[in-house]
Design a protein that fits this description.
Blueprint lengths: L4 H4 L3 E9 L1 H10 L9 H7 L10 H4 L11 E3 L2 E3 L4 E10 L7 E14 L3 E12 L4 E12 L23 E6 L4 H5 L12 H6 L9 H16 L7 E8 L8 E9 L2 E8 L2 E11 L1
Antiparallel strand pairs: 1-5, 2-3, 4-7, 4-9, 5-6, 6-7, 8-10, 9-12, 10-11, 11-12
């Protein structure tokens, strides 16, 4: 059986110590499209060392920056073919603004396994602490494994976010590049689904798709720039549910509603939902 919830839930995924530098941060930002206007002081805060700030979403990928091999979905109680896997949800809580460089230790575990009938959802949690032992950020992610459900487990809680019954306060358009996935894969995700046309076709897609976490990062930057005047320190958390694929070269449309200490967000491509139930939590 590919998934054994009795073994998987609560299983430790170990402890990892890793580092990043300003060059890693710059590469990540550039892979999201930062610096499109090289004369903009706001863009240069993402794209040069001078007054460099770090997008909160960087914490989600920091542990995998040095990965050069395709990922495998092999955990205690979980063995799944990579071609059957999609990213389901992603969340990060930043306990303070991320530093330009750091050495951190992350402890990860499988927190839940849910049965969606035709698919299974595996949820992982990880907390990263700095060299002084102080928590820097916490991530929670889920992967959606097609064809792996039906084992009689819980369907899990609803994560739906109710949007206000009014027009959005902001409508932000962000083009992606045709080569966006080829740039982003240098940040540690070498899944061939995003670069190999034959692999993408075998997985049921007409061409390679953009990494979900690339869309996640692009929208994080779009909202911070378009609503928060580019101030990353105002963000305490960022969560989303991946509801559709993006093909490199498509334009993202992001709608934002302001609500107290939260920004409620949806992102579409040609009216096709790609990010839903998205919340940016403010400090």
């Amino acid at each position: 059986m590919p998934i054994d919830p009795a073994v998987a839930v609560g299983a430790s995924l170990g402890e990892t110590t890793f580092s990043w530098t300003s060059s890693d941060v710059l590469l990540y930002h550039l892979a999201l499209g930062a610096g499109a206007d090289p004369m903009s002081p706001l863009e240069l805060r993402y794209a040069t060392e001078q007054d460099l700030q770090v997008l909160p979403a960087f914490g989600v990928i920091a542990a995998n920056l040095r990965q050069t091999k395709p990922p495998v979905v092999s955990f205690p109680g979980v063995e799944i073919d990579l071609a059957r896997v999609l990213h389901g949800q992603q969340e990060i809580t930043v306990h303070r603004p991320l530093p330009v460089s750091a050495t951190v230790t992350a402890r990860a575990r499988i927190s839940d396994v849910f049965d969606k009938g035709k698919a299974a959802v595996i949820v992982q949690e990880s907390t990263a602490v700095d060299s002084s032992g102080e928590a820097l950020y916490t991530t929670r992610s889920s992967i959606f494994a097609r064809g792996e459900g039906g084992f009689g487990g819980s369907r899990g809680p609803s994560t739906s976010v109710e949007l206000p019954d009014r027009a959005p306060d902001f409508v932000l358009d962000t083009p992606t590049l045709p080569q966006q996935a080829l740039l982003y894969r240098l940040c540690g995700d070498r899944n061939p689904l995003h670069s190999d046309p034959a692999f993408a076709s075998a997985a049921g897609f007409p061409r390679p798709i953009l990494h979900g976490l690339c869309t996640y990062g692009i929208v994080c930057k779009t909202v911070i720039d378009g609503v928060l005047e580019g101030d990353v320190s105002l963000v305490a958390g960022y969560s989303t549910r991946f509801t559709g694929v993006v093909y490199p070269g498509e334009t993202l449309r992001t709608n934002v509603w302001q609500e107290d200490k939260r920004l409620l967000v949806t992102t579409t491509v040609d009216d096709r939902a790609v990010l839903s139930d998205t919340v940016v939590t403010l400090c």
